[in-house]
Amino acid sequence: MKIIVEKFKKVADFCYELFKIAELQLYSHKFSKKKFSQFQHMFLLIYKQFRKFTYEELLTDIAGNSDLRAYLGLNKLPHYTTLIKFAGRLPCKVLDKLVLAFKHLFPKPKKVAIDATGISLDNASLHYCKRIGKSFKKRPFMKTTFIVDIENYFILLVKMRKKTRHDVIDAKPMIKKLALHYEPEVFYGDRGYDANSIFQLCFEKLKAYPLILQRNLDVPKHRRKGEYRKQTFDVFDYGEYLQRNKIETLNSMIKRRFSSNVKSRTDKLQRVEILTRVIAYNIDRLIRTGKVILIILRITRISY
Predict the structure, then answer these.
(1) Widest Cα–Cα separation across the chain
(2) Angstrom distances, CA of residue 292 to CA of 32, 83, 186
(3) 102-256 maps to CATH 3.30.420
(4) In this structure, are residues 181 and 152 in contact, taking their beta carbons and an 8 Å threshold?
(5) What is the pLDDT of residue 124?
(6) C-alpha dihedral over 216, 219, 223, 227, to 10 degrees?
(7) Are strands 141-149 and 209-212 parallel, antiparallel or unpaired?
(8) How far apart are CA 77 and CA 62, in angstroms?
């Protein structure tokens, strides 16, 4: 049990560092009751992803872990509905800032890849769905697009969508956002991102070489559309392109480590749960790669 506690103390250190880098307020309002800080609530949401608990199970677990509670400065525990309300009113922009704060902890990525995966929103078993006459072939899911550092297996950016849309729609704003915070050299993508506008963004905005597999490779260059697509057609390195498969490994890693479905029922809580899962995954990778943070002052953790 001591090893587990020590690990989650490291998780708390990383959460505190992200909180500080993102310059988030300790309390949501100057007139708040100040019983619990936003950092404490945020850590509990991330800790919940590590343990795969419901909100009620989470508080039951924390109640029996006096060492971790003392480390967090939790003199008393919130009710589990307090965490649900906090997650419901937490802007997703705040969690996006925490995801972006990892750029100060990650090594500079040179090779990045983009891909989308589905996070299931339904926990019912296939047998149960068959018995009640519910569709079991196509289950509800949240389409989650990741941009990943494929050399170190870190998630750099994430975007979610419930409705079925083409991959290019989500890729365009993500590439623009990536260009503001990172400077990769190579950008990998599968056939779903074969659009001249994506190639153009990679060359002009991102300043990276787009190693994207094009459709219909048997069609000659002079019959292809798009100026930027034609530039990369003759010099496409398929052997190097296979490095893109590492993002599929990451999709498998995050689902096996933190589950492939979410337990929340409302759209807002589902998005918060997926974003906190991404933060938990990145922290877990930092711990596994031996990243250490030295924090001298922890005064802001104390519960008033």
Answers:
(1) 71
(2) 33, 29, 28
(3) yes
(4) no
(5) 73
(6) 50
(7) unpaired
(8) 8
Per-residue pLDDT reduced to its tens digit, 243-267: 999 999 999 999 999 999 998 989 9
Residue by residue, DSSP assigns 1-41 as -HHHHHHHHHHHHHHHHHHHHTT--SSS-TTS--SS-HHHH
**Residues 270 and 121 sit within 8 Å (Cβ to Cβ):** yes
Q: In whole angstroms, what is the distance from residue 120 CA to residue 222 CA?
A: 43
pLDDT at 203 over 70: yes
pTM of the model: 0.91
Query: Where exactly are the structural domains of the chain?
Result: 2-90+262-301, 102-256
Q: How far apart are CA 46 and CA 190, in angstroms?
A: 31
In angstroms, the CA 202 to CA 216 distance is 21
What are the start-end ranges of the H helices in 184-237?
A: 196-201, 227-233
Query: What SS3 class is residue 210?
Result: strand
